Amino acid sequence: MLTVSTVNVNGLRAAAKKGFLEWLAATEADVVCLQEVRAATDELPPEAGAPDGWFATHAESTLFRGRNGVAVYSRTRPTATRVGFGVPEFEASGRYVEAWFPGLVVASVYLPSGEVGTLRQDQKERFMETFLPYLVELRAKAAASGCEVLVCGDWNIAHQEIDLKAWKANRKNAGFTPGERAWLGRVFDEAGYRDVLRGLHPDGPGPYTWWSYRGKAFDNDSGWRIDLQVATPGLALRATSAVVERPESYDARWTDHAPMTATYDVSRG
């Protein structure tokens, strides 16, 4: 069995002080993907940035210090790693890293959040435009090497109405615009990937993975499902469970997201 978790830590140094280290020590995951690390590797405490028992592959942002940053932690050493997906604008932005293992490629991605009507949304659209063909390329390259692909991360898009509670109020907002939702549909329909959690739990609402710190969003479970594990079909079919590790209470949170964890029976051919 292979267990993989993905979580936006909303600043790894802060998360480490609030419960991330305890979560990491207790998790049964074989691979953990992080987003929004928000620190250079030499700025992280070793127990968070290079924890004992894990091989840590980081992609930090060298363009904007203290921003972005993704990582893949694994209990076995990757056979190869890659930072970025070949597009100059995003190579040093700390938004993509992948690790190769026998039979499997695991990537951690952090899409721009965007903001409709601003340059931030333009950046998000450029990322989507260039990332989709890379996903197609990655799937073909991995298949030629006998590998499945698992792209984990904060995709910053809720795909369907069941993926956020206040969907009517957010139809024109970043993360739920028709264009963004259609693009994520292309990841599934054109690039041929699968939404692992939805494959096991097709009905909503939720489960959500992000809740604003504002108001009582968490207490009211007024959230968004934007943290996904997206897999090639062969791996998606082997998923036996997919859960969101929602904290029991507001004060137990160490990030405004929650880990999304899936288990795969990789012994099945």
UniProtKB/TrEMBL annotation:
Site (Important for catalytic activity): residue numbering on this chain: D227
Site feature location: Interaction with DNA substrate: H257
Protein name (record): Exodeoxyribonuclease-3
Organism expressing this protein natively: Actinokineospora auranticolor
Annotated residues for binding of Mg(2+): N8, E36, D154, N156, D256, H257
Site (Transition state stabilizer): N156
Cofactor note: Probably binds two magnesium or manganese ions per subunit.
Active site positions, chain numbering: Y110, D154, H257
GO biological process: DNA repair
Cofactor: Mg(2+); Mn(2+)
